[in-house]
Amino acid sequence: MGRFDEVYKRSIAAPEVFWAEAAERIQWRRRWYKVLDESRPPFYRWYEGGELNTCHNCLDRHVEAGRGEQLALIYDSPVTGTKRRYTYRALRNQVAHFAGALRARGVRKGDRVIIYMPMVPEAAIAMLACARLGAIHSVVFGGFAANELAAQAHCLRLLRGRGQQGPPL
């Protein structure tokens, strides 16, 4: 039996223990007090009471740990022949810069942001910038036509109409 099979069996046999151990390997702003809340099926909640920042766990903690010059993202487009490499530090800096631009446009924690871009490094930067701010992002592939984009925006308006916050769409 391989390592994957062993890990998988452990995750099935004792899921709360398995996921508690996994959660200890990331940084939390506020540690969770319950791994899995099953009190309202099918609306299960993982890491009840916990708060983290995905962007911090993807970038900042690696820079803080001395891996700032290690490659974090490699972009290689066979279509355009473009190749770009980003270290953790460079990527963190670009994400922080874009997060500042989003904040200047009024984006705050809990807001919804549509990212309408092709699969380029800037799309990942935009997603991580939203995560840095605590904004919820929805990615719409840049190849969609205007009607499909309008449908996504309409869905977000409906969500906001139910008491959700956010800047005007």
What order do the strands of the largest sheet run in, or round the barrel if closed? 1-2
Radius of gyration: 19 Å
Mean pLDDT: 90
CATH class of the largest domain, please?
A: Alpha Beta
Multimeric organization? single chain
Sheet having the most strands? 2 strands, antiparallel
Uncertain stretches of 5 or more adjacent residues:
163-169
Give the name of the CATH architecture of the largest domain: 3-Layer(aba) Sandwich
Topology as a string of helices (H) and strands (E): HHEEHEEHEHEH
**Overall geometry:** globular
Number of individual domains: 2
* CATH topology group of the largest domain: Rossmann fold
Distance, first to last CA: 52 Å
Helix residue percentage: 40-55%
Structural class: alpha+beta
What portion of residues belong to β-strands? 15-25%
Tell me the total number of β-strands: 6
Tally of contiguous helical segments: 6
Description:
This protein is of the alpha+beta class and 169 residues long. It folds into two domains: 52 residues, no CATH class; 117 residues, 3-Layer(aba) Sandwich (Rossmann fold). It is built from six helices and six strands. Strands 1-2 form a two-stranded antiparallel ribbon. Strands 3-4 form a two-stranded antiparallel sheet. A two-stranded parallel ribbon has the order 5-6. Strand 5, helix 5 and strand 6 form a beta-alpha-beta unit. The chain is globular and about 45 Å long. The N and C termini lie far apart (52 Å).
